[in-house]
Structures
1.
Amino acid sequence: MLNEQISTQFKNLSVELNKTVDDKEILQYNIVEVMKMIQREHYIEQVRPFYESDLIKIITGIRRCGKSVIMEQIIKEMAEKTDNIIYLNFEDKKVSANLTNADQLISYIEENKKDGKCYLFFDEIQTLDGWQDACKTLRLYNYSLFITGSNSKLLSGEFTKELSGRYVAFRVRPFIYKEIVEYCKELGKEVSVTDYLVWGGFPKRFEFDSPEAQSRYLNDLDDTIVINDLIRRYKIRKESLFKSLVNFILRSNSRIFSASSIRDYIKQEHTSCSVNTIMKYLGYLEEAYIIESVKQYSPKTKKELSYYSKIYNADVCFNSIRCMNNRFDLTHNLENIVYNELLYMGYEVYVYNNNGKEIDFLATKGTKQYYVQVAYSVAEEKAYQREFNAFRNLDNLSQKIIITNDDIDYSTSVVKHIKLKDFLMMESL
């Protein structure tokens, strides 16, 4: 149920866009009351120290992960001390149809701002032609600028080179388990660990009561942000080839990446596909924050090995919706979940090669580092030996951790076993 206090406060907040641009009227745009959503303090507390800064605040992440809600929650905080706020959502046709380029946006801001410091919030700004120029210009004046976008190019290329030292970036992700538990409590629901392992943490799915409705939403989300958006954005002509590659990659989360193996798979359905094309399509998926590649860390060279990487999905639902007959890949999804949770906790994460034996993660934060092995279960002797032997010959300077879905504690004198249900509620290792 909506918190009545938050709802009342937010109802009072509106941003008027009732001026004209090139003689076209932009209808009054009211920021809607906060949707049924928990306060995502984990992210907001990172942004809060920069509210008054002239640095551009860039909030990025995969579409539908909650960036807009976080921005609205920031606006709500700002509105307690000022009404000099302008919010523009460039996914709204009322906005994008009338503000089509940088000059129009700058003129509009100048016409509508009030005296004193003005706070600008631009949602999905990358859809505006010349958005980089608009941001570079506006930051020179008395504005505090917040922007969101669902494309990693916001943080690459000439824009960030020119803004070196003049922006700060924040990556937002779908819900991790602690957030799901808190959100579902607000909704009067419960969610199991298994549900999280299968269907992940896109916030809006929890608004739907039935598994069928949730599945329908996630499939439509996949069609929109994974397939159609990318085909349109990058003008992909070989649509069937692209879809085949995407399906293969997203089913293969938490596995070693090999362009040649992908090519071999694609050749089963298509006559030809170059490694360059594969790499290009993979780049599109990474730019949209749909996948992430993780490099292997070599203890011998003490550096990343660029030729070896594993791929993880932004959300495990991308794997599960591609599984037939409810044969879900819980083993690889569990590893993917642990990866996402470690990133949320603030760790830098690598794959670690221990003299030919892979350890799933080397997680580092500050001066602390942890070797982390992930398995669905080590109840069987063969699995126990395989997972625990991966830690052999490692020094004792870093803690060794194994995370499984077992209820029994398998800790030893040198390896700490953490049950998955406990790990998911931890703030740090």
Note: The chain has two domains: 4-171, 177-423.
2.
Amino acid sequence: MTSMPEQQMSQPLGERHWYQRVFDGNGLMWVLYFAFIIVSLVTVSSAISSDFYKSLSAGGMNPIMKHWIMLVIGGTTAVVMSSLPARYYRVHVPLLMTIGMVVMIIALILFGRATNGAERWINLGFITLQPSEFMRVYMVLCGALIAKNDLVENPKKEKAYYVYWIVMLLLSTPLILSNLSTGIIFVAFLFLYSWVLKAPKRAMRRFALVGAGVIALFAIALFTFPDSLLPSRATTWRNRIERAVSEREDRFQITDENRQEQMGRIAIARSQLIGKGPGNSKIRDTLAMAYSDYLYAIIIEEYGLIGLLFIPGLYVIWMLLAYREARKQTNVYRSNLIKGFGILYPLQALVNMIVASGVITTGQTLPLISYGGSSIIATSMAFGIMIGASRVDKPKRVEAPVEEAVVEDLPLEDDAVEPNEDEQLDTL
């Protein structure tokens, strides 16, 4: 009589149901993902002020319940993305993301509304979409497609990278204009990711020179042009930069202009070593966006040194797991996907934590932790792609030590019916 494990092993991989593939990917990544979800549930519920709770719940859904629903939607998104067949990550997902981004950018330009004078959103009634969150995922997908199977620099792809950078920056322009930190993250990530993808060195030097030139021209215009010639957001950026670099005798004074960063500093200062305890934050009621942009400051206030170190630790683990999984991959395209998401979101988290410390003031969420449906869904999508990439490559890695000479000829679990389909796609 055949035992259950033998029956499972003898079952053709292509005949397995989707729910049997859900947790086939990197198990540690799943553990990390659900750790983020638990942290988000606890910290956001604690950081939502009573006034904000009353204002939102009175006119609609309970904000804490809404956050929980967004986490469930995000978890479902991660499961779906992790269960896709291998070819979907190369063909279907990039195509659908391209269509989605074009539609969202057009809708943003025509119907977008500014929130808190910064990021522009698309209000769908039941949810507000923030296109910049999905643009991050799109950058990674497109970059991996440009690189394809390159293990070393390919000078013939210089023009392809130029096109990649121009298209990404053009699509990002409406998003960058509304939020300085979004622009900084996008440009920094494009450069880092292109370097990881083995972009031609000459193209990278030109990218750096053009970027430095644009930054210099922007800085000159920002500090020399009168307010009448600058967008309203530009004057806000200038004031914030001036406050950040200037030393004033009244630097501890709280004004309308510096209230957010000062409240963030106070929250951190109140924590001491052990913190005030979960739910005992006093600053959350006076700090705008305490549940989002400044959530890290509230976490430090409530959990002290533990919160200060634990949150960055989660993102360091994210980066290390991504790096480890990417190195194990036998497929270059999927390896680059994992590398991209392993760089992008820890970078965003770093900017958020700098903001929370009061060094700069600009809006970025803590990925998978802060309040915000668009951020949770987009980041869960990225996490699902990473886990899915580890899943579809696992059969090849398992058999590789036995027959390393033919590792490229081994079938993928999702391509059992057509064994060479994904490998053919890799050569496109």
Note: Residues 295-328 form the longest helix (34 residues).
3.
Amino acid sequence: MYNYKMHLTEDEKDILNGSQGETMAKIMKTLVMYGDTFGADSLVDVTSDAGHLVTSFGISLMSPVYDLMDELLNAGIVSKQPFTVDPRPVDLENVPSNIIQKLVFRFMYGKQDYYEDQLKKMGLKSKDGFSCTAYMEQVGNIPNKGDILSWAESSAVVYANSVLGARCNRNSGIIEMFGSILGKVPNFGLLTDKGRKASWIIEVKTGKLPEAQVLGSAIGMKVMEDVPYIKGLDKFLGNELDGWVKDYLKDMGAATASNGAVGLYHVEGLTPEAAESGEDLIAQNPSVYVIDDAELQRVKDSYPVIWKDPDARPKLCFIGCPHLSLRQLKDWTNRIEEGLKKAGKTKVLIPTVLTAASPVLKEFNELPEAKVLKRLGVSTSYICPLMFMNNPTCGKMPVITNSNKLRTYTTSRYYTDDEIVSVITEGRQ
């Protein structure tokens, strides 16, 4: 029997000892061992309406995951709460790819249908519940402030913690699934008041609103897994968490989580906990990091270009990693249209794909902007661009993006939003 350290209730002990069967005992043991590793004092109940699973792709190499899912389902075990899941990896209809790339995709993700059937049986919230931004209104997985979550997906976790004020650690996909099945997660780290204290003060002293992706990148690379308290952004963003501000924080947070390992940040006067508690959220003797225009430029200039030919003409542009909101889809349509008018052109020069959750795209497709975007030669898709780039034949392509997450994990090259518009409408690099 495992010699656990944390406090367990009598019911939890019973599950660990096999009262609900061998498989549930294994799940309990895994979560207890996980919690003990990180110094958890107990298990706490998951209080959110839905979970979120990071593993969404049916890649052939993931056979242990499929075996595990089969074992769970054969034992009659399903999630106590419905869950959403990260984006699908392939969209052959809307994302440009050649014959060889399509063949590789079919081979790589040959278990996609099988795995999605497993997810459905386990408790998938809906057939459209595939997105890294499941907290969008159209997808409907929106935790409340103070909710305890069992979530994975770094950009979703940092958004839920920071912008929504929910509580979740950066879990792996399997740990997230086990937490959703058991309805309990180990109590440590970002679930605790102490763990949500900021050990860094970030002073934003730029002349204008920083590019969200570059600011997040700078913060992530400096603080790593620590919690930052960001001062000076309210000068540009105001003190209201409206849709535009949430989009900015979504993109900034994704960069902090991928260029570092940030699971929570506070923005002075803006994010829920910072608006309530202010500098009381700052731990004793915090480190300070000043970000001015020169520092942002230094960070951006540090990004390596790992294309075989650094001067190659881009063959594809991805916008939306994490997935775009409805507001961002409309905004990008207007920006691209205006850029083409200035350049005296009617269609983009580089194949361009905007990605968003399927329910968001369905709503967008009912708007006039959707017809405009199509006329401009721009596609939309529900896929995960990262999974697209994991195809080795795609990874060799010169791909550009406005996503620091995609840049970090793939061979894609980062450009700011304004630079993206210039490249795809004027051919500038």
Note: The CA atoms of residues 197 and 280 lie 8 Å apart.
4.
Amino acid sequence: MKRNSFGGAPFVFCENICYTGLHKSRNGGEMMQDQKTAGQAEDWELSEAYYKEDTGKKDSVIVVMGPSSEPEAGFDPVYGWGAGEHVHEPLIQSTLTVTNKDLTIGYDLATDMETSEDGMTWTVTIRSDVKFTDGEALTAEDVAFTYNTLRDNSTVNDFTMLDEAEATDDTTVVFHMKRPYSIWPYTMAITGILPEHAYGPDYGQNPIGSGRYIMKQWDKGQQVIFEANPDYYGEAPKMKHVTVLFMEEDAAFAAVQAGQADLAYTAASYSDLTVDGYDLLAFKTVDNRGFNLPAVPSGAVTADGVAAGNDFTSDVRVRRAINLGIDREEMIQHVLNGYGSPAYSVCDKMPWYNEASETSYDPEAAQALLEEAGWTEGKDWIAKGVRLSQILERNAHTAEGSQKLWDYAYTNFIEPNVKTGKIKDDTK
């Protein structure tokens, strides 16, 4: 959870530091598996070539992903695949730059880049030896086309800072900016390059790229099969065939039991389950989980005319109390089976993380802040000397249709406060 020292609205309370599952232990094959009740794995028809036993060096892998991982609009960077915050390896398309393990920027298609002193232009030189999988050369014109197309149509990335991408020759593209944008190299790392000559409405269904893999088959709602690009300009991928199955958790587990998958992602909450022949793997991530609270009073209106705001959470003291009142460690142990770490901001584990965001679980301090904000439990009852007889008398005329509601309120709300003395029992 975020400290919100200055009244900010987002709360981040837990970091799922690992995607957990099972690792296939026989002859070097690998797998992650989701561990719920077995489903109908037989519904998924796969090429027999990808079911071969692990004999010798394995050069194919079957990965199970959740249905939400399947790109609804196809494998088109304009609509999400290969152009987005969480797609750093689009497989099919190349990118100008890459993000290294230490979050520095490296080169892919790019061989050099320069920015003007005012930050309003970026000049990028690209490789001259790259071809799309249809044999056509990839040039700076394709790069410019890609960025101008995403600027005008992207449903994922923000390209409002880009004025125009211009190819000045076959290997040089100049990005003219509307405003300085220091993290432009990062945007270049998450933007797959499109072929201008082969781009159209059906591109997402039949993508052509210059990346490590070629999409060979896509059975919507079931699977997608990739094969290594034989003309790839970089280091050849170790896996020649990659099959991705889109399954719900129970079907994924069934695929694991049947030996039909090598890697399947699962939630940390299933990490205490085991499957013969597989070992548990856990990977560190920056998958922070939390929630947002309104930080403006009620009565506010958004630019679209929608009512917004909340008088309770707009008080910074209330938000700080919530921050202090969440036991992150308990959540990690009982929800994530210990596979997680406390999170305090939206950028935990990043180089720009500020340790001042950290706070400790302190329910007493949280209660004190709530009292300071005027939210003291039972405050009005004590101040006004509320008696049980008054409440019972007023309820004497309650309609029969409200009896169940009254019974619930009395048992769960009134009676506990009578027992604690916050409501005086003068009926005895």
Note: DSSP finds nine helices and 18 strands in the chain.
